[in-house]
Amino acid sequence: xxxxxxxxVGSPIRTERLTQERLTKKTALAVFSSDALSSTAYATExxxxxxAAAYVAPISQADAFSRVIPISIGIATLLVxxxxxxxxxxxxxxxxxxxxxxxxxxxxxxxxxxxxxSLLVDYVLTVSVSVAAGVAAITSTFVGxxxxxxxxxxxxxxxxxxxxxxxxxxxxxxESGALFAGPTYAFIVSFMFMIAYGLIRFYLHxxxxxxxxxxxxxxxxxYQPHYLSLxxxxxxxxxxxxxxxxxxxISNGIPAFKQPEPDNxxxxxxxxxxxxxxxxxxxxxxxxxxxxxxxxxxxxxSQFGRIIFTGYLGWFYYLVQITTAGILVLAANTSFADFPRxxxxxxxxxxxxxxxxxxxxxxxxxxxxxLLAVFSAILVWAFRGETSRLxxxxxxxxxxxxxxxxxxxxxxxxxxGRALRNMRAxxxxxxxxxxxxxxxxxxxxxxxxxxRLEKGSHWRKSLVINGVGAVATFVVLMVFIATKFIHGAWxxxxxxxxxxxxxxxxxxxxxxxxxQLSTEGLGQLRPIHxxxxxxxSGLHRGVIxxxxxxxxxxxxxxTAVYVNLDDETxxxxxxxxxxxxxxxxxxxxxxxxxxxxxxxxxxxxxxxxSSHGEVVTIVLPEFVPARWWQxxxxxxxxxxxxxxxxxxxxxxxxxxxxxxxx
Amino acid sequence: xxxxxxxxVGSPIRTERLTQERLTKKTALAVFSSDALSSTAYATExxxxxxAAAYVAPISQADAFSRVIPISIGIATLLVxxxxxxxxxxxxxxxxxxxxxxxxxxxxxxxxxxxxxSLLVDYVLTVSVSVAAGVAAITSTFVGxxxxxxxxxxxxxxxxxxxxxxxxxxxxxxESGALFAGPTYAFIVSFMFMIAYGLIRFYLHxxxxxxxxxxxxxxxxxYQPHYLSLxxxxxxxxxxxxxxxxxxxISNGIPAFKQPEPDNxxxxxxxxxxxxxxxxxxxxxxxxxxxxxxxxxxxxxSQFGRIIFTGYLGWFYYLVQITTAGILVLAANTSFADFPRxxxxxxxxxxxxxxxxxxxxxxxxxxxxxLLAVFSAILVWAFRGETSRLxxxxxxxxxxxxxxxxxxxxxxxxxxGRALRNMRAxxxxxxxxxxxxxxxxxxxxxxxxxxRLEKGSHWRKSLVINGVGAVATFVVLMVFIATKFIHGAWxxxxxxxxxxxxxxxxxxxxxxxxxQLSTEGLGQLRPIHxxxxxxxSGLHRGVIxxxxxxxxxxxxxxTAVYVNLDDETxxxxxxxxxxxxxxxxxxxxxxxxxxxxxxxxxxxxxxxxSSHGEVVTIVLPEFVPARWWQxxxxxxxxxxxxxxxxxxxxxxxxxxxxxxxx
Lengths: 662, 662
Known about the structure:
Strand order of the largest sheet of chain A: 5-4-3-6-7
Order of helices and strands of chain A: HHHHHHHHHHHHHHHHEEHHHEHEHEHEHE
Largest interface: A-B, 74 and 74 residues
Largest sheet of chain A: 5 strands, parallel
Mean pLDDT of chain A: 84
Oligomer: homodimer
């Protein structure tokens, strides 16, 4: 076991190396952006899937699908708003401004916990959705080949990739960065080239666009054909909002950046948003120009690639598919960085079991990584590895946490503004010496100093930016819940409050324990009076070792207890005991039903009742066999007795082992 | 769990009731004979199955099947020989003369263990074969009805019945007797009537015999069609010897009889043998007269019953089938009485884990009962509940133990004869006073006394009887192995030596343990010098309780040990410790890899090395949550530490629990 763990995870890393594990901007872009960027691989397709349901409406099929362009532009606008909002957060919270911290600091504990719960749910979904979409990219390349049957083993593929990423993360954050930078940049370059090449070919040779494929309605599961209503358009918009997931990853992960962390993080965020907007709108435009419709066994990207990359560029199709699969599968990595980090924050605040706050052998939060892997694997299995079935659960958590985080920032800036107003009110004029303290001890600034602070603050501008962000994300959240509730969003709506309840319950327990264990008002150590009981199964060296130990604790208060299962054996023991003459009192208790445990426990209870405040110690002789299988040859009475005694108050159990040689 | 056990097994029974649990002759016949008698349900069929393979030979089919009569008479003769032999054993071993005891007493330990191993294997097979045949009797009645599909669920039926019998036995021996007497006597009466009625009808109306059914060769699996060779005849004879299994049950179970045990047991054995011989030969004669041939989905008994019970006696067919099924399923009960009893004997002699020697709540050897049920269920599952596939494994163990038991009896009688000869040689003449001791202290008898003893002994006659028994069973054993080796007997031939090896290995271990634990040469209890270590995770009430306890053991040798995982927290603890000023020395150990266990264990090792012969006690503060799920919220370091310390020599672990309230 131990050596298998070493092989997979590597040797332990010393604690001192903790601060060295930082990421450059380029590596950070790869590690934190893969989730956001990779969503271009499925966001357009998810929009088209909803629009496909309108094909029997009085407008033409092409007309319905053409709505993908305005919808995509709307989503890109939202993306820009959210990205600008998050830049504010990064500067205000340089040590990491996840939705949990921002909401808790500014709105209070409950909103913080709601944000935390929705983020945890969302990280699990990110892993499931990304891995499922990545596997779809791989199986798409086999459409029409002899390997098409691989599509039937999606779930197995997904679980394999989840395990792969989990192990990479258990090895440590820096190694993850190195592992994932290559695929991310390969994806960005090849995807951008595909869009550019697609555009050029379309304007040079518009005749290469094939007639649109037939739409297989079975893939739009859960959607009844109906008119292109506003509800349908909003549903398509909601599905496309999956493109925004992962945009908050950078603001959570600021401490992993090289110094100066906030500046590096903000720049990385801007780059990420620009890349994402370009690639997403590019994909939608291409899908529109080339009249690509969703298909059950092949992704939109794959269909598009097959059309444009022909002849001597045919190999580029495979490159795009492979890099898309690569970034998707690795996108899950964003969550493997964030889920354990958030869990550790929650654990430190006593809302999750404290085991999540511990760094493992390789300086990562191992328990969180393992838990995330398990939950996402279960989800993939339950939804049969199909991306479009997971999407309705996806964006609720993201937009709930966006809204709470942006609302928190509004309060944050408002407080900064109020602080400045107070400072100005109490400021002294410019002539007085700087930094005079007033009667209440508060430092007073000069008017010139206050003016400089006001100039550097921009709190009004920031408040407006985050205000717009909060309203926009809240509206999208409501739209999402309204359009996707029956398709799966309800699961998340139910789950988040349950998680919050769990957090509160756990917190309550830790609070209770801390109170009960508090050393408040405790003085010196009190002396203890002992009463010692040694349960024996006969007279042998193990028993003698236990008796010697017992006598050393309380020379005149040791009693050996023997359970009488057979009168003859008991009589022999009594005789042997007297001959031996150790001076220890031997008590024989009856056992009408041949049970060992019950009579012993009853005897302990009797002794406890008659002892007035003394501590009763049970000294258990225990022999330890040399080989594990030999345990099968001895009854495990000592073990059962230990288990039963654990729940008795005021009873201390001491094991005196006697080691057998062979 | 506990209440489910009560419901199934009943309340515990007090030990004093042990001797009251005795059986009358009539009840004992039901409990111990069901195995032997029930074999009439399949023994004839198994003979016919082998003969069926000869149907393409130059003799007529009817000719081949007619060999069932001489074969059955041969088997019945063998039965008489074995029964008479066992009557000798019963009188010589009134406290229970199983093959294990007889062989061990007279031939030595190894032959005893071989007998024991073969019997254990055989008891498992008895359960499997009987239950499988019982289920076949039930499914036979459904042939040609809508319920014929039940035949596909044989294994499930079998396992259900095994569980049923196991539970009945776990409830206790007397209740078992009451449960099984009815079905056994119902079977004897209805089966005898069937044979008698069949004979009468045949002589009054020979025209009711139908033309023989076609033989479906597929059922004679493993048998290539060939001439009616001597080998084939011996194979048929071997299969039929399954009828003898179970005949030894009474001699093993003598202590369960009412007093005088040997006389009652011997009488019961005679009755059982007479009944068995009559029913077995009767079945074979009927099968011959009515020209019944084996059939895949219907037993021979069932076919016979359908022919003779017509008209207003039609219901009698169902009665016979039901009582046959009943006795077969309950026949397994013989093994449920014998297997645990033999296991307990082996456990008492330290050849099996001592847990098998303990009587459970209901005064039965529960562990043996459970083990038998598990193994026989596995066997039924592996052989798909088909009687004829189990038969080749069956009789090896029986006849091996017969042979060893009879050989042991030969030695027994020879020793008695020698003892009488020695007595006569040293006897004094009739005139001298009786019971004079000679110079060596041996009591000397008068010639008249010796003559009386010689007259009452019959050792020569007994030696001849058991000699004939030993030779006959040995010859059958060889024939069985020769004819059935490739069909499954090899499994038992391999298994028995492995079991004997296991017995010896277990015995060796217990011997080693006894030697190491021997108190030989031990004097008074020696005083102990203590060194106490208290691993702490901080300063709280649980830790204080542990420190108080530690100081009470060794006031000036207590050290608290803290593992430094975080410099800041450690510094705070140091300050708090000094302020508190308990006088206990605080040692902080470093942990570069954030592990708690390793640094603590290393520290314990250092202390152990520097302490010269002192006992190192680890006092572990442990807080016990009020509810089980709260354990999930606390790391289980105490548990891991306990596990790791168990294997360190000279280290005593003391748990000081601190109970949380809610």
